[in-house]
Design a protein that fits this description.
Strand content: 5-15%
Largest sheet: 3 strands, antiparallel
GO molecular function, one term: oxidoreductase activity
Radius of gyration: 43 Å
Protein name: Putative CxxxxCH...CXXCH cytochrome family protein
Structural class: little secondary structure
InterPro entries: C4xCH_C2xCH_motif_GEOSU, Multihaem_cyt_sf, Multiheme_Cytochr_ET
Organism: Geobacter argillaceus
Number of helices: 12
Keywords: Signal
Helix content: under 10%
Distance between the termini: 138 Å
Strand order of the largest sheet: 15-17-16
Length: 599
């Protein structure tokens, strides 16, 4: 015989029959103690956990006489083969006897503080009295302050149907599905901004057979960090990670590819660190050539195609040479791309529209670009892309001629310039000025001798800075010189001054015409009898007497205007003293009448 909840029964049950109005009792075989599953679970399988029905099932959420299911979520809270010890977490005493229902006055008992699930933040409890009646129409409640539901939020009411999928909505039932603590925001944003980012550093719980099983150990172990794509480790954290807890210690990553320079040199960021911005945190030993291209490399952002260059230093966003998609950043490769479809003020002007073209790369040994706007002539009417110096090499040639050629160079095969440059370079009629006696003026030899070119006190030297003053700085002495062109090299040696580049305007995606603030001087004087026709523009000292004879523009050149044309080379200059105030188009074919009314 056995006692079940205070009632004695046999193993085979009690057979009662009426025969000829007589009660005959037939007893069975051997007897055994009742087990938990006899009342709470499934006697056939021997599993003791109750079967569940749910609050959205209407009347059927009452005790199901066929399956034995009743309102609750025991099946999702207990493992596949639980023992009585598992019940203790929520129902206290593990020494339940077969008569505990009657001894407990047929009340359900819940722990006053749910064992192993309370923190200093408050008592973990179920939202009903410690003892409450069993009823035919159960009234359930929620748990609060329980570690397994991440403390911060009350749970759904007991008997709510289990979550079907581990998506952002269900994950947020316990903790923020997109956490913002410590470095979460930076990492999740970088990895796509969805819950899919979580599995890069944590177990892929949504893909697990039981996605929420991990909650059962919350608060009794540090946060579990495991890397799904690359090797590495995380260590050093403690268990005080619930919202509002103090004394939390976060760990650090070690030997993780995500925080390497891509070539097996690793950094070890602490999870709470705020000092991880920019490229240098993970790439502290970038080549010196990087610093020539990216001045703010310490705070640069991957994929950025902006141009933040100042006059002092070039500062191109990483996306000008590397992919713009963050997914390409930490993928096991050092990738270059000059693809002009990526956009950006400079990258959009490159000469290729695919990723794997326009450069040659031998990682760590040699890299050259041949389709980058940054290394082009800049002459939009006939834009020529040149091969850059080797990334790992040292360039010793003429840095201007490397991209632009040596002006005047309209006939250059490799780096052709605008034909109009030839007409402007050096000075006004510098090679054909009558000396007033017989012959032509020569070039500078002495400050006391008249010269057609070479002495800015007699005739303004026209170099890049005169029309592109916002790009090339004017020499303090007014002597910007070219020592490489075949015409100029006869007089100018390699000791000439290297012009200062104003980098902000030098490589900005456009050709900037900004006239210099100079009152142009000209040795090409019209005879006195005709000068009255030009006196509104020019002032004269003397006429062809000595070095002090020249005309000076009455207005500074920067008061003139340049208007960009509808297409390359169609711009016009207006009120320019060099053209005696006449409006002239850049690529026009000119003659004497284009600028002169009298000679």
């Amino acid at each position: 015989m056995e006692k079940r909840h205070g009632v004695v029964i046999s193993k085979t049950g009690l057979i009662i029959g009426l025969l000829s109005l007589s009660l005959v009792a037939i007893t069975g075989n051997a007897q055994a103690a009742i087990q938990c599953y006899d009342c709470h679970g499934d006697r056939t399988t021997g599993i003791l956990k109750p079967k569940d029905s749910y609050s959205d099932m209407g009347a059927s959420n009452l005790r199901n006489s066929t399956t034995g299911a009743f309102l609750g979520d025991h099946e999702t809270h207990l493992g596949a083969a639980p023992t009585a010890n598992d019940c203790v977490k929520c129902h206290n005493n593990q020494n339940y006897t077969t008569g505990h229902a009657a001894l407990g006055n047929f009340k359900i008992q819940v722990n006053p503080a749910l064992n192993n699930f309370s923190t200093s933040l408050g008592r973990a409890r179920y939202g009903k009295p410690i003892f409450f009646n069993q009823t035919s129409v159960p009234q359930t409640a929620s748990c609060s302050n329980v570690n397994c539901h991440f403390v911060s939020k009350p749970t759904d009411q007991w008997g709510t149907r289990p979550y079907a999928t581990a998506d952002a909505t269900t994950c947020s039932k316990c903790h923020d599905a997109i956490p913002t603590s410590n470095a979460h925001t930076k990492h999740i944003t970088y990895l796509g901004g969805t819950t899919g980012a979580c599995s890069r550093c944590h177990n892929n719980y949504p893909a697990a057979i039981k996605p929420f099983q991990h909650a059962t150990s919350a608060g009794r172990r540090p946060i579990s960090v495991t890397f799904s794509t690359y090797s590495g480790s995380y260590s050093g954290g403690n268990t005080l990670f619930f919202p509002g807890q103090t004394g939390r210690v976060v760990g650090s990553c070690s030997n993780v590819y995500c925080h390497s320079n891509g070539r097996k040199i690793y950094t070890s960021p602490q999870w709470s660190s705020t000092n991880t911005a920019g490229c240098t945190f993970c790439h502290p030993n970038l080549s010196a050539t990087h610093l020539k291209h990216v001045a703010t490399i310490a705070t640069a952002t991957y994929g950025n195609t902006a141009n933040n260059t100042t006059d002092a230093a070039y500062d191109f966003g990483c996306g000008n040479c590397h992919p713009i998609n963050p997914a390409n950043h930490i993928n096991g490769y050092i990738e270059l791309t000059l693809n002009n479809t990526h956009g950006g003020p400079l990258k959009s002007k490159n000469n290729v529209a695919v990723d794997n073209a326009g450069y040659k790369q031998n990682v760590g040994v040699s890299v050259t670009c041949s389709a980058a706007y940054c290394h082009s002539t800049g002459f939009t009417a006939n834009l020529t892309f040149v091969t850059s110096p080797d990334w790992y090499g040292t360039y010793t040639g003429d840095r201007c001629a490397m991209c632009h050629g040596n002006s005047p160079n309209s006939d250059s095969v490799n780096r052709p310039g605008s034909p109009a440059h030839n007409a402007h370079a050096v000075g006004i009629h510098y090679d054909d000025i009558y000396n007033g006696v017989s012959g032509k003026y020569g070039y500078y030899s002495s400050a006391t001798k008249p010269s057609a070119h070479g002495d800015p006190n007699q005739a303004t030297i026209i170099s890049c800075d005169i029309c592109h003053s916002n790009t090339v700085a004017t020499d303090p002495a007014g002597k910007n010189a070219n020592d490489k062109n075949s015409i100029c090299v006869t007089c100018h040696s390699a000791k000439s001054r290297v012009p200062t580049i104003k980098r902000a305007a030098h490589v900005n995606g456009s050709v900037d015409v900004i006239f210099a603030a100079v009152n142009v001087r000209s040795k090409a004087q019209i005879r006195d009898a005709s000068f009255s026709s030009y006196s509104a523009v020019w002032a004269r000292t003397t006429y062809k007497v000595d070095s002090g004879s020249y005309d000076t523009a009455k207005k500074s050149l920067n008061q003139a205007t340049f208007t960009i044309g509808a297409s390359a080379g169609q711009g016009t200059c207006a009120t320019v003293s060099c053209h005696n105030g006449y409006t002239v188009k850049w690529n026009d074919t000119v003659n004497c009448n284009s600028c002169h009314s009298r000679l």
